[in-house]
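STRUCTURE:
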C-alpha cells in the first residue's frame, strides 16, 4: 500500500507540487519517454497499482463482468466496484483517454490483420496452401451462418 507522510503541508505549496507534477506529465512526448519518467519516479508497486487500475477501467468500459476482471487483473471486488463507481460518477477525462486508447488498439489490430492478408495474398504461399486457407475460410463462414440461424 502506498503511504503518504503524516507531516502536514501548506495547501498552497501542495497546489504548486500538483501543478509541477501535471506540467511534467504534459511535457512527455513519447511512450518511451513516459515509460522512463514513470520508472524513475514511481516504485514498482506504484506503477503496478496504477496499471492495474487502468486495466480494470478499460475492461469495465469494454463490458467485462466482475469475475473476468477479477481473475484476469487479480484484484478484489471492492477495487473493481470503486473504479466502476469512478466511471459512473463522472470520470470524464479517464473515460476519454480510455476511448482513445481503445481506438489506438483497434487501429493496430486492423494494421496487423491487413499485413497478414497481404502476406496471404502474396507470392509467398504455394497455391495448395492458398487453396487450403480458402477452404477453411469458407467452412468457418458456413459455421458462423449456421450458428447465427440457430440463435
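SEQUENCE:
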Amino acid at each position: 500500500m502506498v503511504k503518504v507522510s503524516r507531516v502536514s503541508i501548506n495547501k498552497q505549496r501542495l497546489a504548486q507540487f500538483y501543478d509541477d507534477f501535471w506540467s511534467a506529465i504534459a511535457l512527455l512526448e513519447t511512450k518511451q519517454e513516459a515509460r522512463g519518467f514513470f520508472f524513475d519516479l514511481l516504485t514498482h508497486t506504484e506503477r503496478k497499482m496504477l496499471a492495474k487500475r487502468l486495466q480494470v477501467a478499460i475492461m469495465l468500459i469494454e463490458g467485462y463482468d466482475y469475475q473476468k476482471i477479477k481473475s484476469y487483473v487479480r484484484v478484489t471486488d471492492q477495487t473493481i466496484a470503486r473504479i466502476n463507481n469512478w466511471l459512473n460518477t463522472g470520470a470524464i477525462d479517464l473515460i476519454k483517454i480510455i476511448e482513445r486508447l481503445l481506438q489506438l488498439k483497434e487501429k493496430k489490430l486492423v494494421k496487423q490483420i491487413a499485413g497478414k492478408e497481404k502476406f496471404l495474398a502474396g507470392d509467398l504461399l504455394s497455391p495448395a496452401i492458398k487453396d487450403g486457407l480458402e477452404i477453411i475460410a469458407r467452412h468457418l463462414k458456413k459455421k458462423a451462418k449456421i450458428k447465427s440461424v440457430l440463435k
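REMARK: The radius of gyration is 23 Å.
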